[in-house]
Fold this protein.
Amino acid sequence: MAPNDPKNGGGGSGGFFASLASSISSLGSAMTKSVNGLVGYEGLEVINPEGSTEDAAEEANRGRWKQEDRDGYWKMMQKYIGSDVTSMVTLPVIIFEPMTMLQKMAELMEYSHLLDMADQTDDPYMRMVYASSWAISVYYAFQRTWKPFNPILGETYEMANYNGVNFISEQVSHHPPMSAGHSENEHFTYDCTSKLKTKFLGNSIDVYPVGRTRVTLKRDGVVLDLVPPLTKVHNLIFGRTWVDSPGEMIMTNLTTGDKVVLYFQPCGWFGSGRYEVDGYVYNASEEPKILMTGKWNESMSYQQCDGEGEPLPGTELKEVWKLADAPKDDKYQYTHFAHKINSFDTAPKKLLPSDSRLRPDRYALEMGDMSKSGYEKSSMEERQRAEKRTREEKGQSFTPKWFDITEEVTPTPWGDLEVYQFNGKYLEHREAADKSEDSTDPKSITFNPWQFQDMST
């Protein structure tokens, strides 16, 4: 890491962000010392992102849960403190949003025009500005406090020709839960293997993005690798739930050695530093070339800098990305793009029956029927367990359709990852489907990701 990294403040002036990052980090550290053992609940920590330690007791009585529900869930979940609860706990649909993790992966494509720009520019450092701003743009969607549904093994999600982009994702493993995604247009290909890992901390949860994200820019064949920061979800049971992603995001140009290091500031007292992101684009020699600053829920800007990380004379801060207008008072804090992801308007012809849009529990929740959603969710989870037993009895294993497991195991900051690769079969399927005369209404298709079609649950 270069000596002028915004986190360490390096020798000398320390760069444009050094003193700012230092003061905010101190506030963030103080913030995490919020109330423990509140109202007699051992291990309970409540943090008000807009306040301080003095109002934690008041904050604990806010949020979406009734008092009796809070007490019940706290007693139920205490035994899981310190554990990875990604798929081991059955949760009520009241905390869910009508979207699955496979669909949430597709939200990265809302501002895919930034990758088009990264592919088109001749400036190697602006390439990194555009590409890293694309990676930041999804964090507004990631701040939603509703949990997406865990995909059923074999479930898929397709998005067709959104601004020239096609997207496919598939649930390739259930234990551990793993998803794979592929997207492309004339300028780039995007490939991701994701294996979320969590650590339940009582009234909060750390979400570790164990995964590999690669973007290939087609014009020059440049390959970009992305390592995002972890995400912390606060006040799960007591208080108003909120999300923060403190730490570093690193995007590396594997072809040239250039990289971007961006620091997501932790939320401090009274919201100080919340949403703020700053850092630098470095060349292969780790010399800063462009400074970047902004807020992940608003916009990002950039400016050329000198070797000390200071703005170059005669240059000015220029905006590279700005959040699109979002619906007012949306129940699930959805963007307009999130609504499109759920809509059948973005569904391709001859939609795969394994598509997330078709899940009966997801659709029932979208229609506001929580009772039916909970029933359907339980039914599908039991069907999935029955399929697992059948596979074990038959000595069979699950094989994804659109992605293949490779022999590659890549290290991440949070553990090793088995890598899946797009096998190209989906492109053949989609080409044939698009030529078909079939005009079936996708809403009439029954959700069917199952391996064994005639088994009873």
Notes: The first strand starts at residue 96 and ends at 100.
